[in-house]
Design brief:
By secondary structure, the protein is of the alpha/beta class. It has a single domain, classed as Collagenase (Catalytic Domain), CATH 3.40.390.30. The protein is built from five helices and five strands, in the order E-E-H-E-H-E-E-H-H-H. A five-stranded mixed β-sheet has the order 1-2-3-5-4, with helices on both faces. Helix 4 crosses helix 5. The longest helix has 17 residues. The chain is globular and about 45 Å long.
Length: 190
């Protein structure tokens, strides 16, 4: 019987956050999982995500992202990162450029969990293959024209995907500018 490679999973605790990192077979290791957990934790802190909570990071390849992109976004071909939030944007504080609450409504959403349980915020799926290609071809960064290390590109994708989990988006110019600014601050802070 042929043995298939299995994914490697690890949970890293950073303050109120648990970051569950799954690395699919064949996905290159560009940086330590601790660095990726730090990037996700910093984005969760900056977005004032409900705490304590967990988030999943799945590091994979173009094939998996191509399938997910077709199934969930209706688009052909691979993409670099997809986020699957489990909470509505209203579960997170209002952020610069983001949607404002309707008059008379509250953005606060309270979740009651059993003692000792964490709220799972969602999962971020990243093509490490795409991160490497974009960085090495000079198509990385927020503007798609940055040549930098694949490790920096992967950190950006973790940060970007985590902010999407927390209700941030870049469909509107004001929110895109705020999101890009926050990503840049988080990447420089390391």
């Amino acid at each position: 019987m042929e043995r298939r490679p299995v994914a490697h999973s690890r949970s890293i605790y950073r303050g109120p956050w648990r970051i569950d990192i799954t690395t699919r077979p064949g996905a290159p290791r560009l940086v330590s999982q601790a660095v990726l957990a730090r990037s996700a934790g910093a984005a969760l802190d900056s977005a004032a995500a409900p705490r304590p909570a967990s988030i999943g990071l799945i590091l994979t390849d173009d094939d998996e992202l191509t399938g997910l992109n077709a199934t969930h976004m209706g688009k052909g071909g691979p993409t670099d990162v997809l986020s699957f939030p489990l909470l509505p944007p209203q579960a997170f504080p209002v952020h610069p450029g983001g949607p404002r609450p309707q008059c008379g409504s509250s953005r606060r959403v309270d979740f009651v969990l059993p003692p000792g349980r964490r709220l799972h915020l969602g999962d971020v799926v990243i093509s490490v293959e795409r991160a490497i290609d974009q960085a090495e071809a000079g198509r990385g960064g927020q503007t798609g024209d940055v040549r930098w290390s694949p490790a920096d590109e992967l950190r950006l994708l973790v940060t970007h995907g985590t902010l999407h989990i927390c209700g941030w988006d870049h469909a509107e110019p004001a929110e895109e500018a705020a999101m890009r600014n926050l990503e840049q601050r988080l990447l420089v802070a390391r």
